[in-house]
TrEMBL record:
Pathway: Cofactor biosynthesis; thiamine diphosphate biosynthesis; thiamine diphosphate from thiamine phosphate: step 1/1. Catalyzes the ATP-dependent phosphorylation of thiamine-monophosphate (TMP) to form thiamine-pyrophosphate (TPP), the active form of vitamin B1. The keyword Transferase applies. Its EC number is 2.7.4.16. Mg(2+) 3 binds at D30, D75, D215. This is Thiamine-monophosphate kinase. Mg(2+) 5 binds at D218. ATP binds at G121, D122, R146, S217.
Length: 333
């Protein structure tokens, strides 16, 4: 039977000590000591994943280890921050060794890819709940902030948003998905949901190019409004310009729009940049090996007292009446 401390040492601390480079003091004391490079600031973000709310009880623990860190690295990507390290606190119903081996493997495979060290954490018994805090480094004048967008900016999105939401719909049996997708598309959607790819390289390449950015975790329609609120702007989005994966493009149009605009869990970047930076944006995307698509424009609000507005248009500029809302952790089905 694993004790708390043998669990931590066998599956987490021992592996973390092998790779400690950036932390002045890592696992093994009351606190870790970590500092950014001279002239840079710490970027810090915390995410919690709760069984039944953020992942299914039967999820592959390897996928869960990957996703738990990926969603946090995505926040660093949205700020243009270089990953430094992370802490892991979790509750487990029981410390199964096979589960822990697979979970820690998924976690450290991604951590090693981004040179992000485990520097501390905690564990206890209880319903499965994961809480990670990531630390990154970025110059203050290079951080991609939500309040930095300007009227006239292009709106861009990376990747193909909507695939993760299609995966969720498939696993929930929504929209008669099982009759709509073949085995290959089903595998694509499921991987998008369980193995999101944090766009760290793109976030770093966009420093000095993009103005504002965030990661799409709760749906493009809802998340874009966060930039509008912080920057006091409105937006016009060309729905026909939305980049869709071949698998999503094979679904009915109403399902495509629901997934691509209101779906969450893709962790793609939505960002704004001046029109004069279009070539620089393309170069940043090429450097990062990520597809980016221009989908709209920022504009001044009709009134400073108005709520942030997104005007949906088709490719011909005709208005579309869409009722969309991003994911809400306290009101989700």
């Amino acid at each position: 039977m694993l004790s708390e401390f043998s669990l931590i040492d066998r599956y987490f601390a021992r592996r973390a000590r092998e790779h400690t480079q950036r932390a002045t003091l890592g696992i093994g004391d009351d606190c870790a000591l970590i500092a950014p490079a001279p002239g840079e600031m710490l970027a810090v973000s915390t995410d919690m994943l709760v069984e039944g709310r953020h992942f299914f009880p039967d999820i592959d623990p390897h996928a869960l280890g990957h996703k738990a860190l990926a969603v946090n690295l995505s926040d660093l990507a949205a700020m243009g921050a270089q990953p430094l390290g992370f802490t892991l606190a979790f509750a487990l119903p029981k410390p199964g060794e096979d589960w822990l081996a697979a979970f820690s493997a998924g976690l450290f495979e991604l951590a090693d890819r981004f040179d992000c060290e485990l520097i501390g954490g905690d564990t206890t018994a209880g319903p499965l709940n994961l809480c990670l805090t990531v630390f990154g480094s970025v110059r203050q004048d290079a951080a991609l902030r939500r309040d930095a967008a300007q009227a006239g900016d292009d709106i861009w999105v990376s990747g193909t948003p909507g695939d993760a939401r299609a995966g969720l719909g498939m696993m929930r049996g929504e929209w008669q998905m099982n009759a709509l997708v073949d085995e290959k598309d089903a595998a694509h959607f499921r991987r998008a949901l369980e193995y999101p790819e944090p766009r760290v390289a793109l976030g770093l390449a966009l420093r000095g190019v993009a103005r504002a950015a965030l990661d799409v975790s709760d749906g493009l329609a809802g998340d874009l409004r966060h930039i509008l609120e912080r920057s006091n702007l409105a937006a016009t989005v060309d729905v026909d310009a939305l980049p869709l994966s071949p698998a999503l493009a094979r679904l009915p149009r109403d399902v495509q729009l629901q997934c691509a605009l209101a779906g969450g869990d893709d962790y793609e970047l939505c960002f704004t940049a001046a029109p004069a930076q279009r070539e620089a944006v393309a170069a940043a995307a090429q450097q990062a090996g990520v597809r980016v698509t221009r989908i709209g424009t920022m504009s001044s609000p009709a009134s400073t007292h108005d709520a942030p507005e997104i005007r949906w248009r088709d490719a011909a500029g005709a208005p579309l009446n869409l009722t969309l809302q991003g994911f809400d952790h306290f009101h989700a089905d």
